Amino acid sequence: MNGDTMVGIKRGPEEFRSGASNGSGPNSTDSDSKKMKLEGKPSRVIHVGNIPQDTTDAEVVLLGVPFGRVTNVLVLRSKNQAFLEMSDEAAASNLVQKYSQTQPQIRGRSVYTQFSNHRELKTETTSNALLNQGMQTQDVAGNGLKTEVTDNGGGVNTVLRVIIDNMICPVSLDVLHQVFSRCGKVLKIVTFSKNGTFQALIQLSSDREAQAAKVSLDGQNIYHNCCTLRIDFSKMSSLNVKFNNEKSRDFTNPSLPAGEGVDGMSSLNQGGLPGAAGLLGAPFVGLGGQLNGANGTALAGVGASLPLLGGFTLPANNTAATPVLLVTSLDEHIITPDHLFTLFGVYGHVLRVKILYSKKDCALVQMADPSQAQNALTHLDKIRVFGKQIHVMPSKYQSVQLPREGQPDAELTKDFAASPRHRFKQSLSKNYQNCHPPTQVLHLSNIPPSATEENLKEEFVKHGFEVKAFKFFPKDHKMALIQLPTVEDAVNALIKLHDFMLDGNNIRVSFSKSRI
């Protein structure tokens, strides 16, 4: 074996050379940095030290992406070190030079870089698949797309093939443009369906930007717990888009026709998705500033961690107003349609609830109108229910369909339109004005004259809830306040105990903004 080649994990890590520090080592000085520039022997393999033990391959790769193509990576987590191989020495030299001026960080921890003694990095692990693996199937042409194909073996290039898994929420071309614009300048996008999945071809302005997008976005969710991005390099070298419409877009040529029977659409030409600014989460953390691509767009820099896309919410004018809400992250072993009817019924008239047969931690809740749906979303998004933080967002559907008789999901869908348990008897009830977020204090009403404080507290204790405080209303013992330890306890208690029977009366339970 060539002594200048490091293979797999058979060789131990290098120690930082005191005379070859990049100025960012533990005991570096300005003279050390100058000495490195004069005496350090350039290599396209970079040695990275002081990395956190839970550092991912992707986070190490992101150190090199702004300077050129990364061809290999080896992470030695037990040694808090890694090796990064660039495509050429010029890119590696630019990296060392930049990081001698501005120290990079991974997960908030300063890391140190220098030229490695090794001239080449040959790993026996699968890390290299992160960088170079391409799609093995041919890219499709369609939806007005005419493409010149250059078979580059699926290696790094400017065109990415994107598959959206678990697409519960709609993903538009505009949303994809905004997501991928975080990593560089998006030139063209074509969307299509294949094998029952929504897919896209996305061309960026350079292969380093495409690599940044693959490394930083692959496996991330656009919306919380759904719409997962699966990204590979396409075998196509460029896209030639014929039409600008909802399925394909050439951002370098806005004058293209929309195509026969298709209305031109260009919310992006008007400054991006309305209301969506800042919804993608924190930007990639750069090196004291940010390393920019050729177009000035911040590339995926060296951050504390790869940011999630969860929390990206549907812009209000990106879909028609809908009375149907999508609820995710439910505890599928506990939740029932009745539970969701009770909880969402605090904020409006629930007509139907459907727990998804293929993904039972998700459900659709149909309210009487879009305003009630928005009211429920405002108050219930991100609350904790049965030990899990749920997420509520607008659905792409306008109604919840009842299953046909005999369907396996029949028990998971329920129509509550004629239920006698609705809180709001009239569509314009003044009670809508009294809605507020869940609190740890619950309001009890319709209490029978015979009920005592002990009777009421006992009902909560029987269901496993600890009661912190209780009091009747001074002038009306038909109502009382009961305080539980946490808001989550109060939410769960309301779900389980609303409308419970006591001495012939149905006790109504709701959230109170009062304190005991």
| Unreliable runs | 7-39, 132-153, 261-320
Main beta sheet strand tally, sense and closure: 6 strands, antiparallel
**Helix proportion range:** 10-25%
In angstroms, what separates the terminal alpha carbons? Answer: 77 Å
Radius of gyration: 29 Å
Features:
516 residues; elongated; 18% helix; RNA binding; Nucleotide-bd_a/b_plait_sf; 5-stranded antiparallel β-sheet; HnRNP-L/PTB; phosphoprotein; alpha+beta; 6-stranded antiparallel β-sheet
Question: Explain this structure to me?
Answer:
The protein is α+β, with helices and mostly antiparallel strands and 516 residues long. The chain has helices at residues 30-39, 57-64, 89-101, 129-132, 173-180, 207-217, 337-344, 370-380, 453-462, 487-497, and strands spanning 5-7, 45-49, 70-76, 81-86, 105-106, 109-110, 112-115, 120-122, 145-146, 159-165, 186-194, 197-204, 221-223, 226-233, 240-241, 248-250, 324-328, 350-355, 363-367, 384-385, 388-389, 391-394, 413-415, 441-445, 469-473, 476-483, 500-502, 505-511. Strands 13-14-10-12-11-16 form a six-stranded antiparallel β-sheet. Strands 22-17-19-18-23 form a five-stranded antiparallel β-sheet, covered by helices on one side. The protein has a five-stranded antiparallel β-sheet with strand order 25-26-24-28-27. It starts with a strand and ends in a 5-residue tail after the last strand. The model is unreliable at 7-39, 132-153 and 261-320 (pLDDT under 50).
